[in-house]
Amino acid sequence: MAVLSTPNKIILFTAVVLVLLTLGFYMRRDIFMTVPFPVLQKNLNATRILVCGGAGYIGSHLVRELSTQPDYEIIIVDNLSKGHKKSIPKGIKFEKADIRDKLALDRIFSKYKPDAVMHFCASISVGESVADPLGYYENNVAGTIYLLQTMKRHNVKYFIFSSSAAIFGNAKEVPIPDDAQPNPINPYGYTKFVVENILASSENAYGLKYICLRYFNACGAHESGDIGEDHHPETHLIPLVLQVALGQRDSISIFGDDYETKDGTCVRDYIHVTDLATAHIRALEYLVKENKSQSFNLGSGEGYSVKEVINAARNVTGHPIPDIVEARRIGDPAVLIAKSTRAEKILGWKRKYNTIESIVASAWKYHKTHINGYND
Ligand SMILES: NC(=O)c1ccc[n+]([C@@H]2O[C@H](COP(=O)([O-])OP(=O)(O)OC[C@H]3O[C@@H](n4cnc5c(N)ncnc54)[C@H](O)[C@@H]3O)[C@@H](O)[C@H]2O)c1
Ligand SMILES: *[C@@H]1O[C@H](CO)[C@@H](O)[C@H](O)[C@H]1NC(C)=O
Ligand SMILES: *[C@@H]1O[C@H](CO)[C@@H](O)[C@H](O)[C@H]1NC(C)=O
Ligand SMILES: *[C@@H]1O[C@H](CO)[C@@H](O)[C@H](O)[C@H]1NC(C)=O
Ligand SMILES: *[C@@H]1O[C@H](CO)[C@@H](O)[C@H](O)[C@H]1NC(C)=O
Known about the structure:
Rossmann fold; elongated; seven-stranded parallel β-sheet
């Protein structure tokens, strides 16, 4: 073996020291990186979920359920046009931004590096969508496109979408099965249907993995009674009925009592928001595990008539709740009920709230302690 000359020994020694130093720095690079990567420090394993519209009614209940699970980190994006800052639990990250603001989305995605997006943002009133279709397509369709483009740029693959029973219009088969052909009858329903198609095309083209959850009538409130439904204007039956019980309106209107139903009033499928929230968590687990896009109806399979809902509220509140029968509204189908076979079979989804009384009781717990909603 050749003996090294002194200059060569120095070079070898320096090289070894440099290699060791580099290795040492590399192994303890966390010490030097606390400044550039603050977001990743907390829990390296947590799945980071961007919840768009997470300050709204259904989104806030999803946030509440998800925050009780150990392995998720939540970031809410909401422009607070309809959402409520007071619904956001302490310690949850919140960015006030509009999903139509591409620059803001880019900044938020760079900052938090989400693994998945749940998308609750939308303008949600059927009547308003008839009066202002362009506004509805802009927020619900263009807004979703901007969100998907940002996901694509940042290589985020998983998307859970708040779709709606409204995509089905006047369904031929009732209860409506998961694979019924969509046939919307108003601009709101069309915006949801268009987004479902955009998602299918984006899976083909870019490998996006998505789940569409078609909610029927979302209702009820978190069991704690500290978050619930606060829409302005309110158009949903249960909060309106409970406003009568609170003395905030004199009576509740029943639009038509001559439908071909058990008592002549319209029958709808009421599904509790906490049950919707757990469906989102099951859907996300499924998406990540199976890597497969899918659509699910989320309903109870049972229908309650308007009169039954009012009776349940009378039972729960002990208030007589006077009702007034008025003419039918245009476009109200007699019966709208879903079969949620797919969610039950594939996601193992089970509802916790199985009676209209338990649903109304949970809503009542919120409303009687929040007489003016969040008051913001
Ligand atoms: N409530 C129901 O019964 C029902 C039924 C079927 C489907 N849905 C769908 O579920 C989703 C949530 O409904 P909800 O009842 O919780 O409504 P919501 O109005 O309470 O919540 C929507 C949230 O999105 C936010 N938002 C809207 N546009 C935004 C924008 N451009 N940028 C940022 N934030 C924006 C609002 O501030 C609000 O907090 C919607 O997509 C709706 O279409 C609701
Ligand atoms: C991270 O995941 C690994 C392997 O799945 C697990 O052993 C470890 O406990 C997890 N750490 C945290 C902080 O959850
Ligand atoms: C938020 O989005 C809604 C829905 O389109 C829009 O009407 C409103 O102007 C926006 N508000 C803010 C504060 O950005
Ligand atoms: C998920 O499916 C896509 C094809 O649609 C594939 O490119 C990708 O590698 C799959 N990912 C995993 C984790 O299996
Ligand atoms: C209201 O209470 C009565 C008496 O307990 C019961 O028979 C009825 O089923 C209840 N109605 C609803 C809609 O829950």
